[in-house]
Amino acid sequence: MENTVMNSIKQNTLEQYEDLLNGGGAAYDRIASLFDAGTFVELGRFVKKRTTEFDDGQGNEFEGVVTGYGAIDGKLVFSFVQDFSRMKGAMSEAHAQKIVSVYEAAMKVGAPVIGVFDSAGAKILEGVGALSGYGAVMKAAAAASGVIPQIAVVAGICSGSSAIIASLADVVIASADGGKFYVGAPVSLNAKGNKEAGSVEEAAANGAVSLVTKNVNEALEAAKKLVSLFPSNNVEGTAYTENGDTANRAVAGTGSIADIAKELVDAGSALELSPKYAPETLTAVASIGGITVGVVGAGGKLTAAGAEKAAKFVSMCDSFSIPVVTLVDCEGVANCPVCEKAPYSAKLARLASAYAASTTAKVTVVTGKAYGSLFTLLGSKTLGADVVFATPSAEISVMPAEAAVEFVYGEQIKNAKDPMAEKEAVRAEWAKVCSPVTAARNGDLDDVIDPSELRMRIAAALEMLSGKATVSPYKKHGNLPL
């Protein structure tokens, strides 16, 4: 009799799962798009929610998250994909435990985690239990930070504590089609005049979201590309990718920072992050000569937001020993009230700290202007850069030439018989001071190179630095000027 009852229960459970699986659902569709065909293995698939005294008796539901592991381009990756079709993807204790278990497994073997967020929020009837579940996931994500790459994909609603968990990831990718990302309720913010509240576009504009795609499939493709570029963990070392682009390819090496960066990296390898936030500062993951790199490009004037963006990116690259290539054509700091309220000095100090504390390989190229403290802050040798180049047209000075001539030689020019001629003569002399050759003589540059050689020289430097090992003195952590 007992065996008959147990068999009946087992059969009913299997039929329920089979119905769910056969019914498809966005979670399984997304898993199929994310992983190499036939490689995904589900974990904890029979886990169900805990029934409380407040439930309506229909507690026989599977959790609204699918967890497991598989291969992406042959690389082992773990994932949790929230399923809105099950309990609206609500977070419960069991839901959280499934995600935590994925993190624990990924940490044991040193593999990346991709989380796909699509949840209406917490399972209210569980009360504090659901809140504890959020905390458990936050702790797991925080513990994994800097150890294994974490990528968050916002496919649907990602609000409140879920948005906090997603923000613990290294990269947040959101779908414009159906994606929502916010902490406070958009309804109240909309009533106060913020019509974009809750949109992924606004989250991208304020730096909370790294990349916005047209739809979920494009978001998953971007996540796959990042996984293929990133190393699997923080001890794997230099990451190499397959690319047919030759390292010795000549480039023009002129134009805007974005134009130069596009030429330098391997064809089709670049994925720019946070393009809508502080657009004057470029951050992108790419490869050069088959070596995965993080590219930082500073053009125009560096704002507080741009410094914060670059600092966060350099810190992420350093976590996984991804070499940082910095391109500088920067006129200096931005003189604006908004920046000073940021607070500006703390943001710039954070950037200095990120470069100085990083032990990953760092190659810097001054392609244009490098005025004032920005020459020091953006990957200079004094802050730990391994190799620093400049092109012949670079200008390196404590201040712009026009301002320097007026400040230092103002009286001399004013008292000259021909002030205009004197100013031009002084300016010509000052140009020698700003010359990259002068900086190279002082040891602040390693070489002044032709723009066409930029790619091959950077690729050679990266290969030379691929075995870089640095031992820093022990300390618990720096007191970051956040």
Key terms:
482 residues, alpha/beta, 2-enoyl-CoA Hydratase, Chain A, domain 1, eight-stranded mixed beta sheet, seven-stranded mixed beta sheet, 17 helices, 17 strands
Give a structural overview.
With 482 residues, the chain is of the alpha/beta class. The chain folds into 2 domains: 2-229, 2-enoyl-CoA Hydratase, Chain A, domain 1; 257-467, 2-enoyl-CoA Hydratase, Chain A, domain 1 (Alpha-Beta Complex). The chain contains 17 helices and 17 strands. The protein has helices spanning 2-22, 26-34, 93-109, 128-144, 161-167, 186-191, 200-205, 216-229, 257-264, 304-319, 337-340, 344-357, 373-377, 401-414, 419-433, 436-441, 454-464, and strands spanning 41-43, 65-72, 75-82, 113-117, 150-154, 157-159, 171-175, 180-182, 211-213, 271-272, 281-288, 291-302, 324-333, 362-371, 387-390, 395-397, 447-448. Strands 10, 11, 12, 13, 14, 15, 16 and 17 form an 8-stranded mixed β-sheet that branches. It has a 7-stranded mixed β-sheet with strand order 1-2-3-4-5-7-9, with helices on both faces. A hairpin with a 2-residue loop joins strand 11 and strand 12 (291-302). Helix 3 (93-109) packs parallel to helix 4 (128-144).
